[in-house]
Amino acid sequence: MKIKRKIEIAVISDVHLGTYGCHAKHLLTYLNSIEPKKLILNGDFIDVWQFSKRYFPKSHLKVIKKIMDMAADGVEIIYITGNHDEMLRKFSNTTIGNISIVDKMILDLDGKKGWFFHGDVFDVSIQNAKWLAKLGGYGYDLLTLINRAFNWYLEKRGKERYSLSKKVKNGVKGAIKYVNDYEKVIADLAIENGYDYVVCGHIHQPKMEYIENKHGKTMYLNSGDWVENFTALEYQFKRWKIYNYNNDKLAPFAVDEDYNNMNIKDLIAAITIVDKHSK
Ligand SMILES: [Mn+2]
Predict the structure, then answer these.
(1) Ligand 1 midpoint to CA 83 (Å)
(2) 3-class secondary structure for 22-61?
(3) Which pLDDT belongs to residue 56?
(4) What is the distance in A from the centroid of ligand 1 to the CA of 26?
(5) Which of 26, 67, 114, 252 has the most crowded CB, counting CB atoms within 10 A?
(6) CA-to-CA distance for 268 and 156, rounded, in angstroms?
(7) What's the gap in Å between 47 CA and the centre of ligand 1?
(8) What distance in angstroms lies between residue 90's CA and the mean position of ligand 1's atoms?
């Protein structure tokens, strides 16, 4: 019998299923080692931009099957959309069984307020977004519109859409400043809105840190990614921590025995065919 770690909430982001960079096997091992009440997929879970039929290996299908099995076992799955899976934003606020799709979410965590979103809407205007914080609750929604309009304009002109995470990843000059600005703007907006925690992803930089300004403070949390860092955020016993797969000595014991005998066809069937007799 496998002993799984019980966690109240697990948050993962930037898995990028369907790309060569995604370490699906690591993620599967992690998911097999935990028993969360809630699992939050905070954006860029499936990389629809780079999706092609040529590359979607067995281990990536297993991750999807695992998530569906968790949902069937009563785990509440919250899929927050990101920029690489923004096509799913069409289905925002849809709920199917234990799985729901949203753009952003607010949770009450033992009397404290947590704000969850992917974070790509902060790409466009991080340099001069200070005034957006002053708009409080409207700030995030306004940024979403500006970001959308800006990318629409770039696409119209045949240019590549703006990607902050790509800049950071490629170590473009000033990358550290981009990261700092991103964290600062998000924290400012969270403080302005009275959130105790703000939980995002997108820039692939795991972090847990109190950020303070003259109006107050908030805890900034970033779940990192499953391309380079293999990190997650876990909430248990009224506190957050960063899980780091590279430091987890138990990892080799949580293998995916259950799915090992399944071939690709079985896996696809398990994911796509809904049993008419169930429920
Ligand atoms: Mn992203």
Answers:
(1) 5
(2) CCHHHHHHHHHHEEEEEEEEECCCECCCCCCCCCCCHHHH
(3) 86
(4) 20
(5) 114
(6) 36
(7) 9
(8) 17
What's the CA-to-centroid distance between 55 and ligand 1, angstroms?
A: 20
For residue 230, the tally of other CB atoms under 10 A from its CB is: 22
What separation in Å is there between the alpha carbon of 13 and the centre of ligand 1?
8
Strand-pair partners of 78 = 40, 100
Given strand 231-236, what is the order of strands in its sheet?
Answer: 94-96, 99-102, 76-80, 34-42, 5-12, 231-236, 239-244
Q: How far is the CA of 248 from the centre of ligand 1 (A)?
A: 26
What are the pLDDT digits (tens) for 160-198? 777 777 777 777 777 888 888 899 989 999 999 999 999
Task: Report the C-alpha gap between 38 and 190 in whole angstroms.
Answer: 22
| pLDDT given for residue 147 in this prediction | 77
Pick the CATH number of 5-272 from 3.60.20.10, 3.60.21.10, 3.40.1080.20, 1.10.1520.10: 3.60.21.10
Average pLDDT over residues 107-111: 98
Lowest mean pLDDT among 37-51, 56-70, 179-193, 247-261: 247-261
Domain boundaries, the chain: 5-272
Q: How far is the CA of 82 from the centre of ligand 1 (A)?
A: 5
Q: How far is the CA of 263 from the centre of ligand 1 (A)?
A: 31
